[in-house]
Amino acid sequence: MACSSSSLSLRCVRSLSLILCVVGSLRSEFPSTEKVNCEAFNIHLIDCDCHKSTTTRGGIRVFCKNNRNVTSIPARIDGLAALKITGASIRLIDEAIQYPGLTGLYLNEDQIRFIDDFSFASLGQLVDLSLANNELSGISGNTFAGLASLQLLVLTGNRLHVIRADSFSGSNLPSLQILKLDRCSLYDIEPDSFPALSHLTILDIAYNRLQQLPPVVGGKYGLSNLTHLNLSDNRLSDVDGSFFAKVPSLTHLYLDRNNLQHVPIGSLKESLVFVSLRKNRIESLRQSGLDASLPRLKSLDLSFNSLTKLNFGELPSGDLEKILIHDNPWDCDECGNEWMFDESVVFRWNSEANVSCATPSELSGLNVYRNRNKVFANCAAAKSAIAVPLLIGMAVLVTLLTLCTVVVFKLRVRRRRQTLVNKEELDSLASSKEKLSESTLFAAPRYHTEREDEQSFL
Fold it and tell me: In 3D, which of 107, 175, 169 has the Cα closest to residue 142?
């Protein structure tokens, strides 16, 4: 389901595409309700529609629009479950709102400038609160005190300028899942902001004036369950790596239209699924901090950057299904860029887009995919020029290896033969020695007998 300015529900906000939607209004047609006469419920408001729930839970839902005569929140509406007022002139909320059964409150474009502390303290069952497109200039530590069940908080389009460390805390908002602070003219977020928001999953801070991010968010334990972070359309030129260390579960990161050259993803390597860096100043993927092992990464947007060359091996070694590289000043004399044709994950998403050559000058402006025969033509010639010497070199190398093998084999044969000859000589020598020993042994007695005969004769 797509988001629009006329629809607001927690289910819609949870969808993947919703982080970029402007959430600000309740559905004009309530599901499981029937339109009724407001006066029948003692509701005397001009330009208001009333709906009665057809479910067992019951409750009245009131929608008032474009009535500048409404200057305060109506009181004493029995059974009120949801209230939406747009285009009024409320300006100030200085009294506690006494609707304990209220689950949805939408006060958009009502010129609200100030909200007194504890004004929502009695709304313990409130799930959705939207204060979009008002004139709020600050949020104190007790503005949202008592909202124990709140899951969605929309502050889009106010003039907050600075987020204080105690503006949004888990002690006041223990169930908060979605926080929208886009288009709030923010130029600073204090360190340790958003403390103890352990259930926060979506944080939208797009379209502000942030030049840097705080080194630490979420207090002691960080934003441990945050999965979607939108920081697009700010003025970021660098991001402190420690910031990402406090959001270890982040899966979707939006950093479009900043001034980034480097993104220190750090501990996010194992969690990121989607990264969008559209319209930054990235010149090299190695320098960007994204040439790392990202095993879960499915989508990467590098369009409208300053990339001139990119080897496919530099891309994150995850399971990429989509990569956008169009509208970069590609060097078509760089043979390493030929993978643009061969990798389906690139061709599928960029073949109809503006993937054009910036250099060399004779190819400038040519679309890579529509001029394949011209683009990288020099690479084919260069490969041919390299191939012949390479083949000759390989042949010479093979020949040398063969000769070396033959020489080694002959040397081994000669050595073996010499060993056999030496062994035969040794055996022969040993045999001669044995014969000599035997000759000496039998000759001695004969020598002794002749002497005795000679002496006997004399």
Answer: 169
Q: 228 — phi, psi (to 5°)? A: -120, 125
Enumerate residues 6+ apart whose C-beta is below 8 A from 205.
Answer: 181, 182, 186, 189, 229, 230, 231, 234
Q: Which are the contacts of 101, defined by CB distance < 8 A and separation ≥ 6? A: 59, 79, 80, 81, 125
pLDDT tens across 318-350, in order? 688 889 999 999 998 877 777 777 677 788 888
Eight-state DSSP code of residue 92 = E
DSSP, res 217: B
Report how far residue 427's alpha carbon sits from residue 37's, in angstroms, rounded to the nearest whole number: 126
Per-residue pLDDT of 91-109, as tens digits, reads 999 999 999 999 999 999 9
Phi, psi of 115 (to 5 degrees): -125, 120
User: What predicted TM-score, i.e. pTM, was given to this entire model?
Assistant: 0.77
Residues 6+ apart with CB under 8 A from 379: 335, 338
- Residues 6 or more apart in contact with residue 385 via CB below 8 angstroms: none
| Alpha-carbon dihedral sign for residues 318, 324, 329, 335 | positive
